[in-house]
Amino acid sequence: MQPDIKIKRIYEEPSKTDGFRILVDRLWPRGFTKEKAAIDEWAKDLAPSGPLRTSFHQNDMSWTDFEKKYLAELKQNTAVGDFLERHKDKKKITLIFATKDPEHNHAIVLKQYLGSRS
Fold first, then answer.
1. What distance in Å separates the CA atoms of residue 88 and residue 53, rounded to the nearest whole number?
2. Entry's PANTHER family (predicted)?
3. Closest C-alpha to 9, from 40, 18, 43, 41
4. Domain ranges of the chain
5. Helix (H, G, I), strand (E, B) or coil at 87
6. Angle, CA of 39, 48 and 86, to the nearest 5°
7. What separation in angstroms does the CA of 114 have from each of 9, 26, 54?
């Protein structure tokens, strides 16, 4: 049985209903201690590459282009298989991200991709 995967901004209060909380940003969010973030794991290897992240955040590419390029990165990323194997027995996982836009962020793409691979 695959885990139930949710996404949540780091700025939202941690909750017991989050299950296993995994930060999926390449950079640690400013102003957060490990205790305040309540993170169980930091999976920075699943985040978009630095150049892709920078290009998207500087509005050098559309959301659609970002999705396509990030999916291509995930398909080549060996960390994805390792991640899925390590967490296959978890009931609930919450992917934590710091991006301000709740509708256009890499955690959405990652959640969909992980769900399709499980």
1. 28
2. CYTOPLASMIC PROTEIN, CYTOPLASMIC PROTEIN-RELATED
3. 18
4. 4-117
5. coil
6. 50
7. 18, 17, 23
* Structure token pair of residue 67: 């999705």
Please provide the DSSP assignment of 17-54 as one string: GG-EEEE--SSPPTT--HHHHT-SEE-GGGSPPHHHHH
Q: Which amino acid is at 82?
A: D
DSSP code for 5: E
CA atoms within 13 A on the CB side of 6: 15
Contact 7, 95 (CB under 8 A): yes
The HSE-up count of residue 63 (CA atoms within 13 Å, CB side) is: 9
